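Weekly puzzle thread! Below is a chain. First person to post its structure in token form gets bragging rights.
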Amino acid sequence: MAGVALLQADHARKLEASQVLLGIVPVLIASFAYPLGNRKTMELCGERLDVFQRILGMTLASLPFWLIISLIGLADVGLPSGPQALQSVIVAFSSGVIATVLFFRATDMVRSSMSGLASVEATQSLEVLFALIGEILILSAPLPSLLSWTGIAVIIAGMVLHSLFSGHNPKKKQAERSRQPHSAYTAGSRE
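Winning reply:
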């Protein structure tokens, strides 16, 4: 969170406090709701739904919210410009399709490990870096300032520290395995 805040600080200086809150609050809600919805869907549906079916279910479930937001935006400022629509399509494809499929597939692979799920969910912070790289390469955004580079360093350091401290503890992994339910699938895979 601190790294993302530093990364966005330059942009926030140019905005009013209410505009900053309107940008921060939805992102904070989404950073919890997105993995929570994914976990709940995996818990309720088990292995009956594959990655694509879970994505479709969560997309359909959130569609009324997006329609309301779209109508508010339409009433407030009108239709988006051509460049805004193009940027939205790029974001929808890269983040909404590619990144979501990868994220859901990764969580599916570690669904029985709480530390594995936490590790995959922690990688969401790297999405900010990929978005920044995309802005620079595709949209010709200016290079980050020194403060933004500091934020990038904090994000990377956080991911490295998370990997170091959550990774290779054999006692922890053995304890997780002993708590996992034994199913025909896991029993068959051990034989």
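Puzzle host: Confirmed. Bonus trivia for everyone else. Confidence is low (pLDDT under 50) at residues 182-191.
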